[in-house]
Design brief:
Helix content: 25-40%
Structural class: alpha/beta
Shape: globular
Radius of gyration: 26 Å
Oligomer: single chain
Low-confidence stretches: none
Number of helices: 22
Distance between the termini: 62 Å
């Protein structure tokens, strides 16, 4: 209200102050002083404000404005805000558990985050971090490495000791990458750029973007880089993607502020591959999402016993009445409402988790019923369905993205974000190439191990070889060095960002002294 806005501090009202970035507000409060008795009253309040602002700067979110809506924050930003809050509490004897705190963080800010975590332990706390980042692993006092692989081939503690113990392990894939025995090599040659094939985005001015003109080459692997808050997601997710959806899908979504965009007619389809779940219900799984399940149900319907009983493919669906267990409605689990406590899921006592009734389970194909097939890992199913070209094509795609261990019927609710993203990639790889598709990925390496990133890089390369285009927002240097073209935004986050610092091949960006990304990229390009 006008009455609240009439009160000013250092010439600014509460709204004007809240609209500044945390870095800018810290600058304001570092110079504010009150005379006489007012200074005595204000001293402890100012000290607390300065401390809290510094904590947020220390965890790498100084570019955010104070009034930024929580719903617009990334997962990594939200986590670092909570971390700053805990540091400010000054508690002792607490165990802090963080899951991938480096998500969305540029290499430049990693050291600052690690220093913040170290401050927590120095206060007398314990910090437990689930992380794949090499710098964070190097900084740890104690490492628990689990593996050696995923799924049924994992689940064993390989290392439980110091970094030296990890590096001495012959069983650990993590150790092999840290020692340099396994590594993601840079491409032997970059793809040629066709100057006639590109998307021209002019006057991009949404959020902190400074009316920039961006050229995105097509038919290539294009990487958008820059420090946290530099404008990467604004450029790709708020301007480019909505503009493409509007043209190709008649979407009513309004693109962010820009003057013009040309070259969209060269794209036949746009697909965003993110880490959101592959379905909204417990019934969603890799088999249903990739289309494998439809083909498998058709095979069961063609068996002699199914024909004698008059069963069609719908009889083997757990989504509709007929073959599904009606007690759990094909979910395999039942929800028990717990008063004053969260609801719990228990295995269905009627079907024992199989999702089907007895009549559907009586039908067998090569000795297995439909529930047995859904319980198969993808790599086992690949052998089982040898000779069925279309099913095999989809299963090969699942295995190629590193999900051979995943059960075909595993509920989407039990899958990590990285697994969900790779299921989506497998579904795309398993399709026959029609037209020119632009794939957009935002931080695809989140939650992925070095070995998983190695497979991801191979998959992305295959998509480009099929004639498609890739636009990837990424901080991981092993992915960035694979790109044919880099658009590096910055130089800083927030108001100090939103400009194109450098663009070109990885080698050209690495040679640019103004690019923070280039400074770190230089090291991985020079590594043998």
């Amino acid at each position: 209200r006008p009455e609240a806005l009439a009160v000013k501090l250092d010439g600014r009202n509460i709204e004007e102050l809240s609209s500044l970035s945390i870095d800018a507000v810290a600058g304001v409060f570092s110079s504010i002083a009150f005379p006489g008795q007012s200074g005595v009253i204000a001293a402890p309040i100012l000290e607390e404000i300065r401390r809290k602002l510094q904590f947020m700067i220390d965890v790498g979110i100084g570019y955010l404005t104070l009034n930024r809506a929580a719903a617009t924050l990334s997962g990594g930003e939200s986590q670092r805000i909570r971390l700053a809050t805990q540091i400010g509490s000054g508690l002792v004897g607490v165990c802090y558990v963080l899951d991938e705190p480096t998500t969305g963080l540029h290499q430049r800010d990693n050291a600052r985050l690690i220093r913040t975590l170290r401050n927590l332990t120095d206060l007398g706390n314990s910090v437990l971090v689930v992380e794949h980042d090499a710098e964070t692993i190097d900084a740890a006092d104690w490492i628990v490495d689990i593996g050696p692989h995923a799924g049924s081939k994992g689940g064993r503690v390989l290392v439980n000791g110091t970094r030296e113990t990890l590096l001495a392990s012959s069983d650990s894939l993590t150790a092999a990458y840290l020692r340099g025995e396994l590594r993601i090599a840079k491409p032997s040659a970059r793809r040629a750029i066709d100057s006639a094939r590109a998307i021209e985005l002019k006057g991009a001015a949404e959020n902190n973007l400074k009316s920039i003109d961006v050229r995105i080459p097509l038919g290539l692997f294009c990487c958008v880089t820059g420090v946290s808050g530099s404008g990467k997601s604004t450029l790709v997710n708020q301007i480019l993607l909505p503009a493409l959806r509007r043209r190709l899908n008649n979407s009513r979504e309004r693109p962010g502020a820009h003057a013009s965009i040309e070259g969209l007619s060269q794209i036949d389809k746009v697909i965003e591959i993110d880490q959101s779940p592959i379905g909204k219900s417990l019934r969603s799984n890799p088999a249903t999402y990739t289309g494998i399940f439809d083909l498998v149900r058709q095979l069961f319907a063609k068996t002699r016993e199914a024909k004698l009983r008059g069963y069609n493919a719908a009889r083997f669906s757990f989504n509709v009445k007929g073959g599904r267990c009606e007690a759990c409605r094909g979910q395999g689990t039942r929800r028990i409402e717990m008063h004053f406590l969260p609801d719990i899921l228990v295995e269905c006592g009627e079907c024992r988790g199989t999702r089907y009734n007895r009549e559907a389970l009586d039908i067998r194909f090569r000795g297995k019923n439909i529930a047995d097939v859904l319980a198969m890992p993808a790599e086992e199913a690949l052998v089982f369905f040898d000779g069925f070209a279309r099913i095999k094509q989809l299963l090969v795609a699942l295995c190629d993205v590193g999900l051979g261990y995943l059960q075909l019927g595993q509920s989407s609710a039990t899958m990590s974000g990285g697994e969900a993203q790779r299921v989506k990639l497998a579904a795309e790889l398993g399709k026959s190439a029609i037209g020119h598709t632009l794939y957009v990925l935002d931080e695809p390496t989140s939650g992925l191990h070095f070995a998983d990133i190695h497979q991801l890089v191979d998959v992305l390369d295959r998509l480009v070889k099929l004639g498609h285009s890739l636009v990837v927002i990424e901080h991981n240097l092993d992915v960035i060095k694979q790109a044919d073209w880099i658009i590096d935004l910055g130089p800083e986050g927030g108001d100090a960002g939103g400009r194109i610092v450098a663009q070109g091949t990885p080698e050209e960006v690495a040679a640019d002294p103004k690019s923070h990304t280039g400074q770190y990229l230089r090291g991985v390009l020079d590594a043998k």
